[in-house]
Amino acid sequence: MKGGLIILSAPSGAGKTTIEQFILSEIPNVVKVITCTTRKPRKNEVNGKDYIFLTEEEFKKLIEKDFFLEYAIVHGRYYGTPKEKVLEEINRGNDVLLNIDVQGALTIKNKYSSIFSITSIFIIPPSIDELIRRLEKRGETKEEIERRLKSLEKEMSKWKYYDFIVINDILEKAKDDVKRIILSQRLRTDRFNLSIIKDEKLKKLMEM
Ligand code: ADP
Ligand code: 5GP
How confident is the model at residue 151 (pLDDT cuts 50, 70, 90)? Predict the structure, then answer.
């Protein structure tokens, strides 16, 4: 049975990476596809684990080669999702978790809704002040925080295009909400494969 695409988006600092790490360790058959970026690695980030870090020239060459499922300029830098890897994991039956911005989420939804089962989740912070505190806590510079807050207006208004919204106030509650969404989407009728029904009589009725 094929897997699906789970898209997690949120304004920077809302907590999607924290929630994503929990989901990956908690739910079997959910895999992360590492995306590409032209931004510089943060102190604790590793190339090939957190992102594939590329120069702008390298990134543009990959665009020409149709390497990306989608790509976008976010906070002034290029970010893109490798297509092959996503298709491979979905065909293997895994759910692919994509931590991407609102532009990428909308591109995928518009282009691929008839091809994959897509579930999109928008995570929001409880307040703007708390968002800024979280960015500071993560060690972002003042300049980088400014850059990220500038994108906020454009990003926040897009919540309505997502299937689900989760408020990340109490972290444990937000993690549990996202977990329940991911487990539930596996039971969607459009993901159901009749071949798992062993009772021939039952299967016949369902095939009608
Ligand atoms: P994002 O990936 O959305 O940019 P992160 O997951 O890196 O955000 O979270 C930003 C910071 O906020 C991190 O230091 C993280 O530990 C912290 N954080 C995440 N969720 C919560 C929460 N519910 N309460 C307090 N701090 C949080
Ligand atoms: P950060 O620089 O904080 O890691 O990520 C900035 C933003 O880029 C986040 O909203 C993140 O979800 C998004 N992002 C990461 N990878 C991709 C990608 O491949 N495509 C798109 N469109 N956005 C991405």
Answer: confident
- Dump pLDDT digits (tens) for 164-181: 999 999 999 999 999 999
Answer yes or no: pTM beyond 0.90: yes
Looking at ligand 1, which residue's alpha carbon is closest to its atom 9?
Answer: 15
In this predicted model, what pLDDT tens digit does every residue of 109-128 receive, in sequence order?
Answer: 999 999 889 999 999 999 99
Please give the distance, rounded to the nearest whole angstrom, from the Cα atom of residue 12 to the centre of ligand 1: 9
CATH number of the domain at 5-33+93-206, out of 3.30.420.40, 3.40.50.1950, 3.40.50.300, 3.60.40.10?
Answer: 3.40.50.300
Burial 87-109 (b: 16+ CB within 10 A, else e): eebbeeebbbbbbbbbbbbbbbb
Closest C-alpha to ligand 1, atom 12? 134
Report which bound ligand comes closest to the CA of 20.
Answer: 1
Q: In this structure, what token pair is assigned to residue 190? A: 């459009």
List ligand 1's pocket residues with C-beta within 6 A. Answer: 10, 12-18, 134, 137-138, 168, 171
